[in-house]
Amino acid sequence: MRERPLRIWLVGFGTVGRWLAGALDAQAERLGSRYGCAVQVVGIANARDGFAYRADGIDLAAALAAAGAGRPIGAQRGARTWPSAIEGLRATEADLLVEATASPPADGEPGLAHMREALRRGIPVATSNKWPVALHGAELAALARERGTEFRAESTVMSGTPVLSTLTEGLAGATPVALRGVLNATANAILSQMATGMSYQRALADAQRAGLAERDPAADVEGSDSTAKLMILSALVFGRQLGRDQVACTGITGVTGEQARRAASAGQRIRHVATLAFAGPEGAGAVTARVRPEAVPAGDLLAGIDGVNNALVCRASPVGEIAIIGPGAGPQLAGQGVLSDVIAIARRRAARS
Question: Global pTM?
Protein backbone atom coordinates (compact mmCIF):
# COMPACT_ATOMS: atom_id res chain seq x y z
CA MET A 1 0.00 0.00 0.00
CA ARG A 2 1.40 3.35 -1.03
CA GLU A 3 2.14 5.72 1.86
CA ARG A 4 0.06 8.87 2.07
CA PRO A 5 2.11 12.00 1.23
CA LEU A 6 3.18 14.36 3.97
CA ARG A 7 0.50 17.07 3.84
CA ILE A 8 1.92 20.57 4.22
CA TRP A 9 0.46 23.93 5.15
CA LEU A 10 2.69 26.59 3.55
CA VAL A 11 2.08 29.90 5.32
CA GLY A 12 3.99 32.78 3.78
CA PHE A 13 4.39 33.14 0.03
CA GLY A 14 7.10 35.75 -0.29
CA THR A 15 10.59 35.07 -1.64
CA VAL A 16 11.30 32.11 0.67
CA GLY A 17 7.84 30.58 0.37
CA ARG A 18 7.86 30.86 -3.41
CA TRP A 19 11.33 29.36 -3.70
CA LEU A 20 10.27 26.44 -1.54
CA ALA A 21 7.04 25.93 -3.50
CA GLY A 22 9.03 25.86 -6.73
CA ALA A 23 11.53 23.38 -5.28
CA LEU A 24 8.80 21.06 -3.97
CA ASP A 25 7.07 21.17 -7.34
CA ALA A 26 10.20 20.66 -9.46
CA GLN A 27 11.87 18.12 -7.19
CA ALA A 28 8.88 15.94 -6.31
CA GLU A 29 10.29 12.89 -8.10
CA ARG A 30 13.78 13.38 -6.63
CA LEU A 31 12.42 13.73 -3.09
CA GLY A 32 10.70 10.38 -3.50
CA SER A 33 13.59 8.50 -5.12
CA ARG A 34 16.50 9.95 -3.10
CA TYR A 35 14.90 10.54 0.29
CA GLY A 36 11.96 8.17 0.22
CA CYS A 37 9.40 10.82 1.06
CA ALA A 38 6.40 12.18 -0.77
CA VAL A 39 5.04 15.64 0.07
CA GLN A 40 1.89 17.50 -0.90
CA VAL A 41 1.04 21.13 -0.16
CA VAL A 42 -2.63 21.21 0.86
CA GLY A 43 -2.81 24.71 2.35
CA ILE A 44 -1.27 27.97 1.23
CA ALA A 45 -1.49 31.48 2.65
CA ASN A 46 -0.21 35.02 2.48
CA ALA A 47 -1.26 38.26 4.19
CA ARG A 48 -3.00 39.67 1.10
CA ASP A 49 -5.04 36.67 -0.03
CA GLY A 50 -5.68 34.80 3.21
CA PHE A 51 -5.64 31.00 3.42
CA ALA A 52 -6.66 28.47 0.74
CA TYR A 53 -7.01 24.71 1.24
CA ARG A 54 -7.43 21.80 -1.16
CA ALA A 55 -7.45 18.32 0.37
CA ASP A 56 -6.17 16.80 -2.89
CA GLY A 57 -3.31 19.30 -3.14
CA ILE A 58 -2.64 22.87 -4.18
CA ASP A 59 -1.44 23.31 -7.77
CA LEU A 60 1.90 24.93 -6.91
CA ALA A 61 2.73 25.93 -10.48
CA ALA A 62 -0.60 27.75 -10.72
CA ALA A 63 -0.05 29.42 -7.34
CA LEU A 64 3.41 30.61 -8.39
CA ALA A 65 2.06 31.96 -11.67
CA ALA A 66 -0.73 33.77 -9.83
CA ALA A 67 1.73 35.32 -7.37
CA GLY A 68 3.93 36.51 -10.21
CA ALA A 69 0.95 38.12 -11.94
CA GLY A 70 -0.43 39.70 -8.76
CA ARG A 71 -3.52 37.46 -8.70
CA PRO A 72 -4.90 35.64 -5.61
CA ILE A 73 -2.69 32.62 -4.96
CA GLY A 74 -5.54 30.44 -3.72
CA ALA A 75 -7.98 30.97 -6.58
CA GLN A 76 -8.04 27.29 -7.58
CA ARG A 77 -10.97 25.04 -8.40
CA GLY A 78 -12.21 23.19 -5.32
CA ALA A 79 -10.22 25.30 -2.87
CA ARG A 80 -11.81 26.49 0.37
CA THR A 81 -10.67 29.87 1.63
CA TRP A 82 -10.45 31.83 4.87
CA PRO A 83 -9.58 35.51 5.45
CA SER A 84 -6.49 34.74 7.54
CA ALA A 85 -3.95 31.98 7.96
CA ILE A 86 -4.84 31.29 11.59
CA GLU A 87 -8.51 30.73 10.68
CA GLY A 88 -7.53 28.35 7.90
CA LEU A 89 -5.12 26.43 10.13
CA ARG A 90 -7.75 25.97 12.82
CA ALA A 91 -10.31 24.67 10.32
CA THR A 92 -8.14 22.19 8.39
CA GLU A 93 -5.74 19.27 8.78
CA ALA A 94 -2.12 18.71 7.75
CA ASP A 95 1.00 16.83 8.82
CA LEU A 96 3.43 19.76 8.81
CA LEU A 97 3.36 23.54 9.07
CA VAL A 98 5.96 25.42 7.07
CA GLU A 99 5.92 28.97 8.47
CA ALA A 100 7.72 31.31 6.06
CA THR A 101 6.25 34.68 6.95
CA ALA A 102 8.37 37.55 8.31
CA SER A 103 6.92 38.58 11.66
CA PRO A 104 8.12 41.82 13.27
CA PRO A 105 10.48 41.97 16.27
CA ALA A 106 7.95 43.57 18.62
CA ASP A 107 5.98 40.38 19.28
CA GLY A 108 6.70 37.85 16.50
CA GLU A 109 3.07 37.80 15.42
CA PRO A 110 1.25 36.37 13.57
CA GLY A 111 3.92 33.74 13.00
CA LEU A 112 4.04 32.83 16.70
CA ALA A 113 0.30 32.10 16.76
CA HIS A 114 0.63 29.91 13.65
CA MET A 115 3.41 27.86 15.24
CA ARG A 116 1.64 27.47 18.57
CA GLU A 117 -1.53 26.32 16.81
CA ALA A 118 0.31 23.54 14.98
CA LEU A 119 2.50 22.39 17.88
CA ARG A 120 -0.39 22.26 20.34
CA ARG A 121 -2.07 19.81 17.96
CA GLY A 122 1.08 17.70 17.72
CA ILE A 123 1.84 18.91 14.19
CA PRO A 124 5.54 19.56 13.47
CA VAL A 125 6.79 22.99 12.40
CA ALA A 126 9.59 24.05 10.05
CA THR A 127 10.17 27.79 9.91
CA SER A 128 12.33 30.52 8.41
CA ASN A 129 10.61 33.20 10.53
CA LYS A 130 13.27 34.60 12.89
CA TRP A 131 11.55 36.72 15.50
CA PRO A 132 8.98 34.23 16.85
CA VAL A 133 11.89 31.83 17.41
CA ALA A 134 14.15 34.54 18.85
CA LEU A 135 11.49 35.67 21.33
CA HIS A 136 9.89 32.30 22.16
CA GLY A 137 12.22 29.59 20.86
CA ALA A 138 12.64 27.81 24.20
CA GLU A 139 8.86 27.71 24.68
CA LEU A 140 8.23 26.40 21.15
CA ALA A 141 10.90 23.70 21.48
CA ALA A 142 9.49 22.63 24.85
CA LEU A 143 5.96 22.53 23.42
CA ALA A 144 7.16 20.30 20.58
CA ARG A 145 8.80 17.90 23.05
CA GLU A 146 5.68 17.87 25.22
CA ARG A 147 3.47 16.99 22.24
CA GLY A 148 5.93 14.44 20.86
CA THR A 149 6.58 16.35 17.64
CA GLU A 150 9.33 18.40 15.99
CA PHE A 151 10.22 22.08 15.86
CA ARG A 152 12.89 22.96 13.32
CA ALA A 153 14.24 26.39 12.36
CA GLU A 154 17.46 25.72 10.42
CA SER A 155 17.28 28.69 8.06
CA THR A 156 16.80 31.29 10.81
CA VAL A 157 20.52 31.51 11.64
CA MET A 158 22.71 30.95 8.56
CA SER A 159 20.11 30.37 5.84
CA GLY A 160 20.97 27.14 4.04
CA THR A 161 24.16 26.41 6.01
CA PRO A 162 23.33 23.70 8.57
CA VAL A 163 24.04 25.23 11.96
CA LEU A 164 21.21 24.24 14.30
CA SER A 165 21.04 20.64 13.12
CA THR A 166 24.83 20.33 13.44
CA LEU A 167 24.88 21.68 16.99
CA THR A 168 21.76 19.94 18.30
CA GLU A 169 21.87 16.64 16.37
CA GLY A 170 25.40 16.22 15.04
CA LEU A 171 26.81 17.05 18.50
CA ALA A 172 24.09 15.26 20.46
CA GLY A 173 25.49 14.29 23.86
CA ALA A 174 28.13 17.03 23.88
CA THR A 175 27.67 20.00 26.21
CA PRO A 176 27.71 23.42 24.52
CA VAL A 177 29.79 25.95 26.44
CA ALA A 178 30.06 29.12 24.32
CA LEU A 179 29.97 30.40 20.78
CA ARG A 180 30.97 33.37 18.70
CA GLY A 181 30.49 34.17 15.05
CA VAL A 182 29.78 36.44 12.12
CA LEU A 183 26.06 36.02 11.52
CA ASN A 184 24.97 38.76 9.13
CA ALA A 185 26.03 38.57 5.48
CA THR A 186 25.19 42.19 4.65
CA ALA A 187 27.20 43.66 7.52
CA ASN A 188 30.13 41.39 6.71
CA ALA A 189 30.08 42.32 3.02
CA ILE A 190 30.14 46.02 3.94
CA LEU A 191 33.00 45.62 6.44
CA SER A 192 34.96 43.54 3.92
CA GLN A 193 34.72 46.39 1.41
CA MET A 194 35.74 48.93 4.05
CA ALA A 195 39.04 47.11 4.70
CA THR A 196 40.39 48.96 1.65
CA GLY A 197 39.54 52.31 3.25
CA MET A 198 36.16 52.67 1.52
CA SER A 199 33.68 54.72 3.52
CA TYR A 200 30.72 53.08 5.22
CA GLN A 201 28.30 55.09 3.06
CA ARG A 202 29.94 53.98 -0.19
CA ALA A 203 30.21 50.34 0.91
CA LEU A 204 26.54 50.37 1.90
CA ALA A 205 25.55 51.89 -1.44
CA ASP A 206 27.53 49.19 -3.26
CA ALA A 207 25.79 46.49 -1.20
CA GLN A 208 22.41 47.98 -2.01
CA ARG A 209 23.18 48.10 -5.74
CA ALA A 210 24.28 44.45 -5.58
CA GLY A 211 21.02 43.49 -3.85
CA LEU A 212 22.79 42.50 -0.63
CA ALA A 213 21.35 45.33 1.44
CA GLU A 214 17.73 46.46 1.68
CA ARG A 215 16.68 50.02 0.91
CA ASP A 216 16.28 50.33 4.69
CA PRO A 217 19.31 48.39 5.95
CA ALA A 218 18.74 49.05 9.66
CA ALA A 219 18.11 45.43 10.69
CA ASP A 220 21.43 44.35 9.19
CA VAL A 221 23.74 47.27 9.96
CA GLU A 222 22.37 48.17 13.40
CA GLY A 223 22.60 44.60 14.61
CA SER A 224 19.01 43.51 15.29
CA ASP A 225 19.26 40.63 12.80
CA SER A 226 22.38 39.27 14.51
CA THR A 227 20.71 39.83 17.88
CA ALA A 228 17.75 37.67 16.80
CA LYS A 229 20.12 34.93 15.62
CA LEU A 230 22.05 34.99 18.89
CA MET A 231 18.76 34.68 20.80
CA ILE A 232 17.76 31.72 18.60
CA LEU A 233 21.07 29.97 19.26
CA SER A 234 20.65 30.53 22.99
CA ALA A 235 17.11 29.12 22.99
CA LEU A 236 17.60 26.11 20.70
CA VAL A 237 21.22 25.11 21.39
CA PHE A 238 21.59 26.04 25.08
CA GLY A 239 17.91 25.87 26.09
CA ARG A 240 18.05 29.37 27.62
CA GLN A 241 15.55 32.01 26.51
CA LEU A 242 17.01 35.51 26.32
CA GLY A 243 15.17 38.80 26.02
CA ARG A 244 16.36 41.49 23.63
CA ASP A 245 17.48 43.58 26.59
CA GLN A 246 19.92 40.83 27.59
CA VAL A 247 21.89 41.19 24.35
CA ALA A 248 24.21 44.21 24.24
CA CYS A 249 24.16 45.42 20.65
CA THR A 250 26.29 47.93 18.73
CA GLY A 251 25.90 48.23 14.97
CA ILE A 252 28.51 48.93 12.31
CA THR A 253 27.29 52.40 11.31
CA GLY A 254 29.94 54.07 13.48
CA VAL A 255 32.84 52.21 11.87
CA THR A 256 34.85 54.45 9.53
CA GLY A 257 36.78 53.48 6.43
CA GLU A 258 39.96 54.75 8.09
CA GLN A 259 39.43 52.49 11.13
CA ALA A 260 38.87 49.48 8.87
CA ARG A 261 41.93 50.33 6.74
CA ARG A 262 44.17 50.77 9.81
CA ALA A 263 43.01 47.44 11.21
CA ALA A 264 43.79 45.75 7.88
CA SER A 265 47.25 47.36 7.79
CA ALA A 266 47.90 45.89 11.24
CA GLY A 267 46.91 42.43 10.03
CA GLN A 268 43.47 42.60 11.60
CA ARG A 269 39.94 42.70 10.24
CA ILE A 270 36.94 44.47 11.71
CA ARG A 271 34.09 42.00 12.00
CA HIS A 272 30.58 42.29 13.44
CA VAL A 273 31.00 39.59 16.08
CA ALA A 274 28.18 37.89 17.98
CA THR A 275 29.27 36.31 21.27
CA LEU A 276 27.34 34.03 23.62
CA ALA A 277 28.70 32.44 26.79
CA PHE A 278 27.31 31.19 30.08
CA ALA A 279 28.91 30.82 33.50
CA GLY A 280 27.54 27.28 33.87
CA PRO A 281 26.89 24.31 31.58
CA GLU A 282 23.82 23.97 29.32
CA GLY A 283 22.99 27.70 29.45
CA ALA A 284 23.08 28.00 33.25
CA GLY A 285 24.35 30.95 35.28
CA ALA A 286 25.29 34.46 34.25
CA VAL A 287 25.14 35.17 30.52
CA THR A 288 27.43 37.16 28.24
CA ALA A 289 25.51 38.03 25.07
CA ARG A 290 26.64 40.78 22.73
CA VAL A 291 26.87 41.88 19.10
CA ARG A 292 29.49 44.50 18.26
CA PRO A 293 32.27 45.46 15.81
CA GLU A 294 35.60 43.99 16.89
CA ALA A 295 39.13 44.18 15.48
CA VAL A 296 39.88 40.48 15.00
CA PRO A 297 43.54 39.35 14.76
CA ALA A 298 44.79 37.62 11.63
CA GLY A 299 45.07 34.21 13.33
CA ASP A 300 41.38 34.23 14.30
CA LEU A 301 39.18 32.17 11.99
CA LEU A 302 36.65 35.01 11.83
CA ALA A 303 39.25 37.33 10.26
CA GLY A 304 39.19 35.25 7.09
CA ILE A 305 35.41 35.33 6.68
CA ASP A 306 34.88 37.79 3.82
CA GLY A 307 31.94 39.03 1.77
CA VAL A 308 28.59 37.33 2.26
CA ASN A 309 30.05 34.36 4.10
CA ASN A 310 29.10 33.72 7.72
CA ALA A 311 30.84 31.62 10.35
CA LEU A 312 30.08 30.23 13.78
CA VAL A 313 32.62 28.76 16.20
CA CYS A 314 31.07 26.71 19.01
CA ARG A 315 33.00 25.40 22.00
CA ALA A 316 31.55 22.19 23.39
CA SER A 317 32.68 19.56 25.87
CA PRO A 318 34.35 17.15 25.24
CA VAL A 319 34.96 17.88 21.55
CA GLY A 320 36.47 21.38 21.77
CA GLU A 321 35.87 23.97 19.06
CA ILE A 322 33.66 23.29 16.04
CA ALA A 323 33.59 25.78 13.14
CA ILE A 324 30.73 26.06 10.65
CA ILE A 325 31.26 28.30 7.61
CA GLY A 326 29.00 29.07 4.68
CA PRO A 327 27.04 31.71 2.78
CA GLY A 328 24.45 33.50 4.89
CA ALA A 329 22.06 35.34 2.59
CA GLY A 330 19.63 34.89 -0.29
CA PRO A 331 16.09 33.52 -0.68
CA GLN A 332 17.32 30.31 -2.29
CA LEU A 333 19.61 29.69 0.69
CA ALA A 334 16.87 30.38 3.23
CA GLY A 335 14.56 28.19 1.20
CA GLN A 336 17.17 25.42 1.18
CA GLY A 337 17.32 25.55 4.97
CA VAL A 338 13.55 25.04 5.17
CA LEU A 339 13.66 22.31 2.52
CA SER A 340 16.25 20.39 4.57
CA ASP A 341 13.94 20.61 7.59
CA VAL A 342 10.97 19.40 5.54
CA ILE A 343 12.99 16.41 4.30
CA ALA A 344 14.17 15.57 7.83
CA ILE A 345 10.60 15.61 9.15
CA ALA A 346 9.27 13.60 6.19
CA ARG A 347 12.00 10.96 6.55
CA ARG A 348 11.34 10.50 10.26
CA ARG A 349 7.63 10.16 9.61
CA ALA A 350 8.31 7.56 6.93
CA ALA A 351 10.62 5.63 9.29
CA ARG A 352 7.92 5.48 11.96
CA SER A 353 5.26 4.16 9.60
Answer: 0.96
